[in-house]
Amino acid sequence: MGRIMEWAGRPNHLGGLPRKTVIMAVGTFAKAVASLLNSTSVHNADTLLNLVRSRPPGVPLITVSNHMSTLDDPVMWGFKGFPTCNAELQRWVLAAEDICFKNPVLSYFFRLGKCIPITRGGGIYQEHMNEALDRLSNGDWLHTFPEGKVCQEDEPIRRLKWGTASLIARAPITPIVLPIFHLGLQKVMPENYIFGKRPLIPLWKKDIKIIVGEPIEFDIPKLKQTALLASKDLLPFQKYGWPPFGEMDEVAQRCLYIDISERIQSVLERLRVLGRKPKL
Questions:
Q1: Under a CB-based contact definition with an 8 Å cutoff, are residues 28 and 82 in contact?
Q2: Could you write out the DSSP letters of every residue in 102-132?
Q3: How is residue 3 annotated by DSSP?
Q4: pLDDT of 2-46, one tens digit each?
Q5: Cβ atoms within 10 A of the Cβ of 97, count?
Q6: DSSP β-bridge partners for residue 194
Q7: Of the four, 16, 54, 223, 268, which is 20 to 30 A from 190 by CA?
Q8: What are phi and psi of 268, to 5 degrees?
Q9: What stretches of the chain show up as alpha helix (H) in DSSP?
């Protein structure tokens, strides 16, 4: 399968005006929901702002967070002081194809908004994951929700999907990985509001809390060696037909992606516990 409407996501499409228009409109909406209609507090915001604005040239950034509502992105970027309306600085984000790319109009809109369609259940080697790798190769910022779906219950972070881990491992330059935990957006856009459906518009007068962690360091060459050794002791399991990754077969890749995912999950869980405290 080819890349859905990739041309619309290019910065030079029609001189960049459509992208700037959409980013400006969506950013204004996010600012209104996060900073006017609701109250948003951010812990350690400077770390995120510095990495978005002035990380080393060519070094990609991956932010990872829990997923509490359909409004997480873009509203979590709508806090005061964040360049939400800047099309150049704004993130790329992995978005569910069956929700955001159901028809040409939605596909065009979300492409202009720097969204990359992902087919749920399509595996970590689907074509649009290669597109995400291209963005990282350019030193861009990519946001992912590695839990894979919305969860509005106050529960520990679930086992993460391996897609984000595979991007971290396969990127030509190892990305800076920044964990973020947020809560409150499940009250702004609850899944079961009236008759088991979401409200038509975001709710207001809610408290949103965003906890930005510190970058997680990954020594990918060392982790690869560890995975190669660990793979020799694994029992046979169902394989997905993954292509080789350097000297790593599918068994070794599985060990590598599980290791990276568990490290991210552990950090997100610590941020979740921190976020439940009345004051940070």
A1: no
A2: SSHHHHHHHHHTTEEEE-TTS-TTSHHHHHH
A3: -
A4: 899 999 999 999 999 999 999 999 999 999 999 999 999 999 999
A5: 20
A6: 197
A7: 268
A8: -60, -35
A9: 17-31, 45-54, 72-75, 97-100, 104-112, 127-137, 163-170, 185-188, 220-231, 250-275
Could you tell me the strand order of the sheet in which 141-144 lies?
39-43, 207-212, 176-183, 61-65, 141-144, 92-96, 115-118
3-state percent breakdown (helix, strand, coil) of the chain, nearest 5: 40, 15, 45
CA distances from 27 to 15, 51, 82, 138, 255 (A): 20, 19, 10, 23, 39
Tens of pLDDT, residues 135-191: 999 999 999 999 999 999 989 999 999 999 999 999 999 999 999 999 999 999 999
Residue 83 DSSP SS3: coil
- Does pTM top 0.85 for this prediction? yes
Please report, as a single letter, which amino acid is at residue 30. Answer: A
Query: Which residues, listed in sequence order, are joined to residue 118 by a DSSP beta bridge?
Result: 96
In what helix (H) or strand (E) does residue 142 lie, and over which residues does it extend?
Answer: strand 141-144
Tens-digit pLDDT profile for residues 65-111: 999 999 999 999 999 999 999 999 999 999 999 999 999 999 999 99
- Residues 117 and 97 sit within 8 Å (Cβ to Cβ): yes
- Specify the pLDDT at position 53: 97
CA 31 to chain centre: 19
Query: What digits encode the pLDDT tens for the residues 244-260?
Result: 999 999 999 999 999 99
Identify the residue whose tokens are 């568990």: 262
Fill in the amino acid letter for 120.
R
Determine contact, residues 49/164, Cβ cutoff 8 Å.
Answer: no
